[in-house]
Structures are given as C-alpha cells and as structure tokens.
Amino acid sequence: EARRVPEQYRLFEPTMACSREERLLLEKDLYKALENNELFLQYQPQLKLKTKHDFSMEALVRWNHPEKGLIPPGDFIPLAEESGTIVPIGKWVLETACRQTKELQETIGQQVTVAVNLSLRQLYHENFVKVVSSILEETQLPPKSLQLEITESMTMDKNFLLPILHDLKALGVTIALDDFGKGYSSISYLKDLPIDCLKIDREFVNNMSEDEREPLVDLIISMAKHLNLNVVAEGVETMEQFNYLLNSDCDAMQGYLISKPILFETIINNCRCLNKK
Ligand code: C2E
Ligand code: CA
Ligand code: CA
Ligand code: CA
C-alpha cells in the first residue's frame, strides 16, 4: 500500500504553497526583466575538431534579478514558457545574439556561427519565420552564421514542425537537434527533419572512459555521419572525455573543459587583443 501523509499535514503544505507563491512572483518579475535590461547573454565556445578556420558558440540567457541575484535559465525558462513571456524574451535573445555575433565577425574579420536555443512556444507563434528573417536583415548577420537549436521534445508533432523548419532553412540558417538521446523521439525523425547538426546530450558524454568504447556514443556519432549531420558533444569536462572524442568522428566539443559560458565583452576584448598581435 502506498505511503500516505497523515491528513493534518496534508492540509498545510508550506513548501508547496511557498514555491507556488514564489513562482507567481517570479512570473510577474519576468515581465519587467526585459524592460529593465536584467537579461543578458553568455556565450559558450565550441572546439572544432575538423575545421580550424571558423568559430562557433552557443548563446545562453541569464537573468540578473535585482534582489535574488543571478537566476539560471533552468529556473526561469520553464516559467517563461508557461506564461508566454518566452515569446518576447526569445525574440530579444535572437536579436541580441545576432547583433553581437555580427559585431564579433567585424572585429575579427572571420566567420563566426552562433547557436540560439528555441522554445516550442516561439515556434507556435505565427510570425516566427518572419521574426527571424527581419532580425537577420536588421542586424546584417549572414543567415548561415545563425544556427537554431530545437530539442527532441519539439519534434513530436512532425506535421506542425516540418513546414516551419523548411521555411527557416529557406532563409539560409541551419538547425541543430539539441540534447540528442535524452528524449524519446524516434530515430526516423532524424531522417525526415531538415536538420544539419546533432548535439549529443551531456549524459552520454559523462559516461565515457578512455579505456573502453561507449557503444551508444559511437553509435550516435556513426549514425550522424551516415546521415551527413554535424555532430557536437556537449558537456565535455575531463581529459578522458576529450581524448575519447578525439578518437572518434565527432566534429566539435562543447563543455567546461574547453570553456565555461562567458560574457560577450570578454570574448570581444580577447579577440581585440589577439588582433593587435
Ligand atoms: P542547453 O541548451 O543544453 O545548454 C547547455 C547547458 O549546459 C548550459 O546550461 C551550459 O552552461 C551547461 N554546460 C555547458 N558545458 C557544461 C559542462 O561541461 N558540464 C555541465 N555540467 N554543464 C555544462 P545553462 O546555461 O544553465 O542552460 C540550461 C538550459 O536552459 C539550456 O540547456 C537550454 O535548454 C536553456 N536555455 C538557455 N538559454 C536559453 C534561451 O535563450 N532560450 C531558451 N528557450 N532556452 C535557453
Ligand atoms: Ca542548447
Ligand atoms: Ca543541450
Ligand atoms: Ca536543454
């Protein structure tokens, strides 16, 4: 028989009540966060293993809350998705990432690709393709410099997603499937969706050791190669994982070992210094 909490305690659930209240407050704050410039982006560079001449990074949003301090996206993106605030927030992320990447390209005089995370709710918004195309036009970022990351959970409704992805691809941007292996979507999606890149979820990368091959990682990489997809390993933290991936067909690595997510100002200042040398 299931363990039951005695009735008198169930009437009063302080932790739940508290967190619900807190969620409501945060949700309200989120609306103001955009206007008050409390959101900012960090960028996590990727290490390319095959091509040496281009630079890629992923944009990750952060919220500098006036009282609570730094709030990670895992704590507010789900709220933003629920309340719908993700639509203007997502648009701001796209705009900012494209503008800053364009500036970086001009500074270092070379191709830079930026990957931006999308929420399903953004895609459902009727004008999403239009939003992306006007941001590209406004910022003058070459479309091929923008990669849009979707997750497996979004691929569930293929009939809905397919035309949008095709319209996005027609703009010239590329699409990555994020957190691959973590969700439950069928492998057949890989064949049917116009995807350019597959990002192996951190959990698989975590399990790798140097002296033994990890069958699932090898399988994902070889499958990606057969489908002509770029493959990026996420969450690389140790030299063991690094060496493992060096001995594979993986195209790029991302993770704390290579770099933590960093401020745009830091990236651009470092590039300026390099350019002077
Ligand atoms: P994600 O897209 O899978 O992003 C990678 C997350 O892993 C980031 O967490 C990054 O800081 C973290 N990470 C990178 N390397 C390592 C590593 O070596 N070890 C470990 N343990 N973690 C690593 P972050 O920035 O907290 O973002 C969490 C999630 O929030 C993201 O997961 C993404 O799903 C979502 N997110 C972030 N920014 C946005 C955004 O602008 N829009 C939307 N819709 N979602 C976003
Ligand atoms: Ca991502
Ligand atoms: Ca991921
Ligand atoms: Ca994720």
Task: Kindly describe this structure.
By secondary structure, the chain is α/β, with parallel strands linked by helices. It contains 12 helices and 10 strands. The protein has an 8-stranded mixed β-barrel, surrounded by 4 helices. Strand 8, helix 11 and strand 9 (252-253) form a beta-alpha-beta unit. Helix 2 (14-35) packs across helix 3, helix 4 (86-108) packs parallel to helix 6 (128-139) and helix 4 runs parallel beside helix 12. The protein is globular, with a radius of gyration of 20 Å. The termini are far apart. 30% of the residues are buried. GO terms for molecular function: cyclic-guanylate-specific phosphodiesterase activity. This is Diguanylate cyclase (GGDEF)-like protein. Residues 23-275 form the EAL domain. Keywords: Membrane, Transmembrane, Transmembrane helix.
Structural class: alpha/beta
Rg calculated over all Cα atoms = 20 Å
Shape type: globular
Count the beta strands: 10
Helix content range? 40-55%
Cα end-to-end separation:
72 Å
Number of helices in the DSSP assignment: 12
- Along the chain, the helix and strand elements come as HHEEEHHEHHEHEHEHHEHEEH
Q: What summary fits the major beta sheet?
A: 8 strands, mixed, barrel
Heterogens: ligand C2E, calcium ion
Please tell me the overall pLDDT: 88
